[in-house]
Amino acid sequence: MLPKKNPEIIYAIEMVLNHDIAGDPMSELRWTHKSPEKIAQLLQQQGIGVSANTVARLLHNMNFSLRVNHKCLASSDPARNQQFEFISRLRTRFARQCLPIISVDAKKKEQVGNFKNPGRKWDRQAVQVRDHDFRSDAIGMAIPYGIYDIAANRGSVFVGMSHDTPAFAARCLASWWQKEGSPRYRKADKLLILADSGGSNGSRCRAWKTELQAQLSNRFGLTLTVAHYPAGTSKWNPIEHRLFSEISKNWAAEPLENYDKVLNFIRTTTTKTGLTVNAYLDPNDYPTGITPNAQTYSQLRLHHNNILPHLNYTISPNM
Predict the structure, then answer these.
(1) How far is Cα 171 from Cα 104, in angstroms, rounded to an integer?
(2) Based on the number of CB atoms within 10 Å of its own CB, is 27 exposed (0-12), middle (13-18) or buried (19 or more)?
(3) In the predicted model, is pLDDT for residue 58 greater than 60?
(4) Which residues does 148 contact at the CB level (< 8 Å), separation at least 6?
(5) What global pTM score does this model have?
(6) Residues 234 and 128 grouped into a single domain
(7) Are residues 165 and 219 in the same domain?
(8) Distance of CA 180 to CAs 40, 154, 191, 227, 267, Å?
(9) What would the 3-class secondary structure string for 193-243 be?
(10) pLDDT digits (tens, 9 = 90+) for 244-282
């Protein structure tokens, strides 16, 4: 067996990688695009017989590091900064008038059952879960649709059991307004909605607009101002880092064995800054593939803003 540090082999590796080494100028870390298998083959051509595993160990001792992909390149959407500035002005205007501002989105779907949940937790022993995440073994799917009230620092999550559709998203908003929004903002007749550009509440989704008109605007006499974050910038949507991330941390490494457990973890999500969350189960069925017909869309009281009209619009009630 070769010693952990063999000067002759280390020198040979240095020579083999003479033109294939990169490094961090602020640390001792180095890396190469050649694999241990390729380096072992090159060494064997020089009469040095070593295995790829030995090469990998020696590379580690030589301060070489494995590299991974880093998600750090932001979207190059030319409307990005302009839309961010417009959303900032909208939020300031609504806040000054003490009008409600909500951030909405659908969280990742979760299989309900004894399945592995990502994350780690302090415990005496690991929880045993199924070795495969087969859909057929699940009780059902949990489809969390969240509404985050920015000014009140309050979250509401409606857990669906069917599909994430525009009708489901609008139903969640209508239920939130009836249960929490209206009592909290008794005199408000306007609502600012911040949403992503895709999904059930996407900027190009016609059904999202008609469902907002019917279920929220007409029903409660609300004028809805909707602003969408540009594609690739969903992480800037407040609900992502102020609500959803906290829920994920709260149920990390906990198998979501039933719907009651899902709701309980959501309801017990809190932060030191005072976040509280309500959770509701929605057992209704929401079929997919339903689009509004021409007559329904023609009755939509939709006004596009002059600034990036495809991302910003207002829906007024048909009164």
Answers:
(1) 12
(2) exposed
(3) yes
(4) 102, 103, 104, 154, 155, 156, 238, 239, 242, 243
(5) 0.80
(6) yes
(7) yes
(8) 66, 10, 13, 22, 15
(9) EEECCCHHHCCCCHHHHHHHHHHHHHHHCCEEEEEECCCCCHHHCHHHHHH
(10) 999 999 999 999 999 999 999 999 999 999 999 999 999
| Sign of CA pseudo-dihedral 121, 123, 126, 128 | negative
CATH code of 265's domain: 3.30.420
Section 235-240 average pLDDT: 93
- pLDDT at residue 56 greater than cutoff 90: no
Mean pLDDT, range 54-82, rounded to an integer = 77
| E strand or H helix that includes residue 266 | helix 259-267
Q: What CA–CA distance (Å, rounded) separates 44 from 209?
A: 67
What value does the mean pLDDT take over residues 43-57? 88
pLDDT computed for residue 127 by the predictor: 86
Cα 99 from chain centroid (whole Å): 26
- Torsion-angle region of 217 (φ positive above 0: left; ψ -120 to 50: alpha; else: beta): alpha
Closest among 265, 271, 273, 169 to 224, alpha carbons compared? 169
137 and 196 inside one domain: yes
Calculate Rg over the CA atoms of the chain. 27
Per DSSP, the residues of 31-62 read: E-SS-HHHHHHHHHHTT----HHHHHHHHHHT
Dump pLDDT digits (tens) for 179-228.
999 999 999 999 999 999 999 999 999 999 999 999 999 999 999 999 99
Domain count along the chain: 2
Can you read off the two tokens belonging to residue 126?
């690991």
C-alpha pair distances (Å), 54 with each of 40, 67, 96, 118, 271: 9, 19, 66, 33, 48
State the residue range of the domain holding 12.
7-61
Look at the chain and count its residues.
Answer: 319
CB atoms within 10 A of CB 111: 20
